[in-house]
Amino acid sequence: MLQGIERPLEERELAQLVAEAARTRWALEVAGSGSKRRIGRPIEISGVVTTRNLRGITLSEPSEQVISARSGTLLSAVEAELAKHNQHLACEPVDLGPMLGEAAGQTSVGGMVATNLSGARRIQRGGVRDQLLGLRAINGRGEVFKWGGRVMKNVTGYDLCRTLAGSWGTLGIFSELTLRAIPRPEEVRTLVLMGLPDSIAVEVMCQALATPFEVSGTTHLQAVLAQRLRLPALTNSGTSVTALRIENFSPAVAYRADKLKDLFVPYGDLIELDHAKSLAFWEELRQLSFLQGSVDPVWRISTAPKMGPRLVESIRRYRVCHAAYDWSGGLIWLEVPDAGDAGADDIRRVVATLGGHATLIRAEPSVRARVDVFPPLETAVQRLTNGIKQAFDPLNILNPGRMYPGQ
Amino acid sequence: MPLILQPEPNASVLRHRDMILHDLTQLAEPGTVQSQIEARRAFETDALTAYRCMPFAVLLPRTTEEVSRLLAYCNVNEVKVIPRGAGTSLSGGALPTEDAVVLCLSRMSRVLDIDFDNRFARVEAGVTNQSISEVVGPDYFYAPDPSSQLACSIGGNIAMNSGGAHCLRYGVTTQNLLGVKLVLINGDVVEIGGSHLDSPGYDLLGLIVGSEGQLGVVTEATVRILRKAEGARPLLMGFNSSEAAGACVSSIIASGVMPVAIEFMDRPAIKVCEDFAHAGYPLDVEALLIIEVEGSEKEIENQINLIVGLSLQHEPTVTRISKSEAESAAIWKGRKSAFGAVGRISDYVCMDGTIPLSTLSETLTVIARICSEAGFQVANIFHAGDGNLHPLILYNANTPGELERVEHCGAEILKHCVAVGGCLTGEHGVGIEKRDLMPLQFTSIDLQQQMQLKTVFDPHWLLNPSKVFPLDGRKAA
Known about the structure:
The complex is a heterodimer. Helix content of chain A is 32%, strand content 23%. Chain A contains 15 helices and 18 strands. In chain B, 35% of the residues lie in helices and 19% in strands. Chain B is globular and about 70 Å long. The two termini of chain B are 29 Å apart. Chains A and B meet through strand 8, helix 6, strand 10, helix 10 and helix 15 of A and strand 9, helix 8, helix 9, helix 11 and helix 17 of B.
């Protein structure tokens, strides 16, 4: 019988728990290490199942750039194993823990995949969804199923890896995941421009991606958010910060940095961060340091890159907001102070007009219960979404209502 | 008779053929519905030519609205629909059944929008893969590059999640697609994705890509376009054994150098391709690697030096770096025309299994043994960097019983691929060809889970229904 928090040690035990919950129609909250429990619609549950005791790396094959781990394994453990072989995950997933008031580094591999929140390198190397080669999971009937495997190219059957990435534990509970890794670059450098307005910054970032120099990170923080950065070189100016990252073998990095500097000289003085400073800078961005130390609502908005500044400007007509741009303008982290409904009405209206979608990442439970946390879907897409949920979890027992009301 | 069976045709549809044709003609624009035997014959097979079946009509719509009307009718009247792009599927993905209409998107071939600022192009589904790179060139390109890229359409690429040689660096179709306009079988038109990178809810786009035309009909696609590197250069390396070439690939991948492509050919393949393309391939080696690197002149030199250095321990007998654009083009022409070149000298079946790289030399030995025991010649051509094999097994289609034997031989190879941790298909799709092998890779629960998704999108199983899933065991879905 389910009592409080269940921490199965084996995939089979996990499957039995879910099968029992299905028999008794008990709704389960699905958690990895629990670092993102404060995201999503509040849900009514009978018990919690966590994968935190399903731990361990089950395959490490550096010569094939592949790693498998049980789903509760901490992402930091996977990254440490990869680092031994001078590799890392291309998608540099963001760590939401610290901005939600939790400790850093608590994300599990299962949580990373379930939320599909990719970092700066998404623009160049794909997101979490694109690094997932294989999965084993338990559906809402308590059945173990798998898809994919350990090879890079695989079109055998429907792509359940991408279907389940970003499904927030509503379609299945991962038991084991296989991920692709890439070599760490020999050198990383960052070029920083200070004081650019949003629209010019996005122009710079898009122009950087329109060069052949494989820029692997593009971010722009408005002054208010830039002041929260920790890297001393960047915080004291009191202005906005725009950063471009280059990663490669050292000679290529030097050559490309020079080319980019020539290109962006007209935009003002460039600061160059060396390898160590660059690693520190992009690591603190992964932890969203610019959103820490505040409890104001935060939205994550996805749009076409050049639309970013217009979208923020339109929202600003209705309320105060502070924006950080990633993906050359296509991803916006928007902090909205003094907002009863987290600014949901205004933000949704503007996004609907200009294109893209918005997800509420940080807000009090009462707000998350009141407004749509995930983007409302058009009727036909909502119908397909309901059908997919039914196909995996017909009794609606896995994280019911976390993404959409009633399912 | 070939081993792969088609399902029993729907007798009611066959009986009402004339009425259905009449209705479809009423719904469609003039010229869309083709029912003459000559017109239908052109659609009786795709690039898996061992299988043929005439559909009872071919539909050639020009707009999404027309596709929507036609699909809605087919849904209500339980008429099966075989979506088709350019018909280049190697797995029989566009093979018709006699109770089906072929819905061919070839007339929808307009480029709708090119947005360099936001780095995407929006095109209709019938646009060919290569023409996207042509319209966004010379500075930009669309990355996936299947060998059939001159002919194959983006709609077909999406259905099969097509790859190509340069996917080692740039990813396959699914990594390079931002959105689609999808017509569901009930006629609903839905926009999935758009010009942004992330999905708002479940990743429907990820599910649609590679679903082999079974979930809906894509009529428009928004694809990522990328800025081209400053330069690119292939080098050729010949080895005395396939094992040495395979070990060299592993050394390169493990080292952290990231070539954009690593292609492999064995001796029979080299000879056929050289005879066809005159690419200057060495003929006195057992295995050949084509390795391409990109960057500025200096970066190219650095990477080539690293690769040549790494290769020394594997004792290549030939190392030749391309010295000109013309030479580079010839090297790639040889590789990309490989299937056609083999097709000039023999009938063949082309396998598409993927294996973990560490099992490469073992797998090549097994392929050689399986084929020689069955009395078939085999030419190996494949994407070595990601372990995606293409053994071409040569046979004579006119000899009774050979097709069955060669299919059996191919199945044995794929069984081995799965057994060593790989999969049945890396980029060609399951289609009809590998449908009955699916239980090698999946349990019945795995297959049921996928089939339930098919039912969500297509409750009566009318879209390309004879493909992907074995015919028995479908009821429960």
